[in-house]
Amino acid sequence: MKIAVIGANGKEGSLIVKEAQERGLDVTSIVRDSKKSPTDKYLVRDVYSLKTADVKDFDVLVDALGFFGPNVKEYVPATKHLIEILNGSKTRLLVVGGAGSLYLDSDHTKQLYEQDDFPEAVKPLSEEMGKSLDELRQSSINWTFISPAATFDAKGECRGKYVLAGEELTFDKNGKCEISYADFAIAMVDEIINAKHQKERISVRW
Questions:
Q1: Could you give the CA distance from residue 145 to residue 201 in angstroms, rounded to a whole number?
Q2: Alpha carbons 162 and 42: distance in angstroms, whole number
Q3: Per the database record, which ranges form the NAD(P)-binding domain (predicted)?
Q4: Which residues on adjacent β-strands are paired with residue 143?
Q5: Which SS3 state, helix, strand or coil, does residue 71 take?
Q6: Are strands 2-6 and 60-63 parallel, antiparallel or unpaired?
Q7: How many domains does the chain have?
Q8: What are phi and psi of 144, to 5 degrees?
Q9: Confidence grade of residue 31 (pLDDT, cut at 50, 70, 90)
Q10: Whose CA, among 77, 111, 124, 177, lies 20 to 30 Å from 131?
Q11: End-to-end CA distance of the chain
């Protein structure tokens, strides 16, 4: 299986690359600087310079881009561009999503970021990632959006396991909703290989 990872040199992207390689997948990094590629195979592109010809031969394209601060407004146009270049192709798009757009109830009436006590500092990020998910839902491409737990720990341990959930925020028996970047990468590669949740948003936690 041939996959390409946009943002392959980032904290989550690099772990997805490592996990995919360890499972024998053929991985190409899409980076803005060749010196930062974690793989021997790479394309030097930013997301907006990617063209259909660049990605048409991959089975899966992973979007592990991170936009922060004023750049969070890039999530929607970046997603729209990826939809445009994947339209009509068989390449699946898997997205490293956010937890803020998970629903608080089974009726899907309220999202996590709409809570009164949700941190103001990350609300714009959650809103933009939620809008990107809406763009995917309205598209005709084959996508999967994977939301991490509410606490997404870059330095957390790798337990080698996770709980798969749906669109609602879920908790463990201790009332916690956590996962590490390393175990999220395992979940991502599981979905790449198994393709059990096409055109769906799923979530993962410990």
A1: 5
A2: 30
A3: 7-191
A4: 93
A5: helix
A6: parallel
A7: 1
A8: -145, 130
A9: very high
A10: 177
A11: 27
Q: pLDDT tens digits for 93-125?
A: 999 999 999 999 999 999 999 999 999 999 999
pTM of the model: 0.97
Q: pLDDT value at position 174?
A: 98
Residue pointed to by tokens 């999967």:
144
The residue whose two tokens read 């660049």 is 54
Taking the C-alpha atoms of residue 16 and residue 48, their distance in angstroms, rounded to an integer, is 22
CB 141 within 8 A of CB 86: yes
Q: Which two tokens stand for residue 187?
A: 């979940």
pLDDT at 199: 98
Q: Distances from the Cα of 65 to the Cαs of 5, 27, 62, 79, in angstroms? A: 9, 16, 9, 10
Range of the domain at 39: 2-205
- Residues 83-94: what's their mean pLDDT? 98
Cα–Cα separations (whole angstroms), residue 38 to 43, 53, 144: 12, 22, 24
| Rounded to 5°, angle at Cα 18 from 23 and 92 | 70
Q: What is the tens place of the pLDDT at every residue in 147-204? A: 999 999 999 999 999 999 999 999 999 999 999 999 999 999 999 999 999 999 999 9
- 122's tokens: 């990350």
Helix (H, G, I), strand (E, B) or coil at 76: helix
Tell me which DSSP letter residue 111 carries.
Answer: B
Phi, psi for 30 (deg, rounded to 5): -110, 110
Domain harbouring 144, CATH code: 3.40.50.720
